[in-house]
Write a structure and sequence with these properties.
- The chain is of the alpha+beta class.
- It folds into two domains: 111 residues, Phosphorylase Kinase, domain 1 (2-Layer Sandwich), CATH 3.30.200.20; 234 residues, Alpha-Beta Complex (Aminoglycoside 3'-phosphotransferase, Chain: A, domain 2).
- The strands form three sheets. The protein has a five-stranded antiparallel sheet with strand order 1-2-3-5-4. The protein has a three-stranded antiparallel sheet with strand order 6-8-9.
- Helix 3 packs antiparallel against helix 7.
- It is globular.
- The protein starts with 8 loop residues before the first helix and ends with a helix.
């Protein structure tokens, strides 16, 4: 396992508006994209922690635009939450540099940001109960609702066409045609499954749903839960916050939260859409977002889980056929295994879609 580079966090921290004496820093969290550290300071005899992150500008190729998005979003959330009890724990608070910027660029060209550490809350890599799923969905729904009136201009598209499913499908068709790694013969059934579902790829885009400010990475571990109450209090990891459809966020919650199996599970009998988890997501999300969503957005909630799961499956299959050039792999056929779990989950969602639609209709 590779180690994170040994950055001089003391020097980096000296460029931010943080009082007190630097104590130390240590790697923090389980993220695979940015380098994240917990950095401690002595402030009048009290240890105060901050989160420092080095933005992976190889993945996020517009770090300045990305940070402009995050600053606008966190500033807006701060204004909306001002005066609420515990408001400081309900949003990420950026620390400015000595020059007043939202990020610091070091001599090596790396971009750094700092947040106040949110104490008394934690993230979980896997959901443990429907109650946790409901809490997370309520938090994501509230996040969207609070940002529904974000003033113009439009946020930057930090990853253009991120959830443009027809373009993802076109990329798969190209990968099948080129077959550069000579792997198409190994994925015949997956290719057939993908081609058989082409007609669903444009349904959300053709529905003329309103554009929203969306998170676009609504994995369960991107919500901090209060350690005492279990409430979802703060949405984190704002790198992909940009314009999109509200259903992209809900669909990815369904994809990442309803199945008990790992994303690369090889025993496909373990892959299933657990209806109680979906019900918890729907109830939690609609309890906070329901009053600003349109009727059409609500009606497409179950479908969005199927579409986003299918889209991620397309991406894994495309990368497998292209020779594993995008997603990191840890074994031969890893991306094909990932594709299979997604497509199996699509099948499970399809089987339960009538009951999912009925539930959403009842919830209003």
């Amino acid at each position: 396992m590779s180690q994170k580079p040994n950055y001089d966090l003391r020097t980096i921290a000296s460029h931010f508006q943080i009082l007190g004496n630097f104590i130390g820093a240590e790697p923090y969290g389980s993220g695979h994209i940015n380098d994240t550290y917990s950095v401690s300071f002595n402030q009048g005899g009290k240890v105060v922690r901050y989160i420092f992150q080095r933005i992976n500008h190889h993945i996020f190729k517009q770090p300045v635009a990305l940070m402009e998005n995050i600053q606008r979003v966190t500033d807006h959330l701060g204004k909306k939450l001002a005066g609420e009890p515990g408001s400081s724990s309900r949003l990420l608070t950026l620390i400015k540099t000595l020059g007043g910027a939202p990020f610091y660029r070091d001599d090596a060209g790396s971009y750094w940001r700092a947040y106040i550490f949110i104490e008394g809350a934690r993230g979980y890599d896997a959901v443990e109960s429907p109650a946790q799923a409901m809490a997370a969905a309520r938090a994501f729904g509230r996040f969207q609702k609070l940002l529904a009136d974000l003033p113009a201009p439009r946020l930057h598209d930090t990853i253009p066409d991120f959830h443009h499913t027809p373009k993802r499908f076109a990329a798969l068709e190209t990968a099948i045609s080129n077959d550069v790694a000579n792997r198409a013969k190994l994925a015949r059934s997956e290719i057939e499954f993908a081609l058989a579902h082409k007609e669903i790829t444009g349904i959300l885009l053709d529905a003329r749903l309103p554009e929203r400010v969306t998170h676009n990475d609504t994995k369960f571990n991107n919500v901090l839960l209060d350690e005492a109450t279990g409430e979802g209090i703060c949405v984190i990891d704002l790198d992909t916050v940009m314009p999109g459809l509200a259903l992209y966020d809900f669909g990815d919650m369904v994809r990442t939260t309803t199945s008990p199996a790992r994303e690369d599970e090889q025993d496909l009998s373990k892959v299933t859409m657990q209806f109680p988890m979906f019900e918890a997501l729907a109830r939690g999300y609609l309890s906070s977002a329901g009053d600003f969503l349109t009727l059409a957005e609500k009606q497409f909630l179950p479908f969005s889980g199927k579409l986003i799961t299918f889209e991620i499956g397309l991406r894994f299959l495309t990368d497998f056929l292209a020779g594993d050039t995008y997603f990191k792999i840890h074994r031969e056929g890893h991306n094909l295994d990932r594709c299979r779990t997604q497509f199996k989950l699509v099948e499970s969602i399809k089987q339960q879609e009538p009951n999912m639609n009925k539930l959403v209709e009842e919830l209003g």
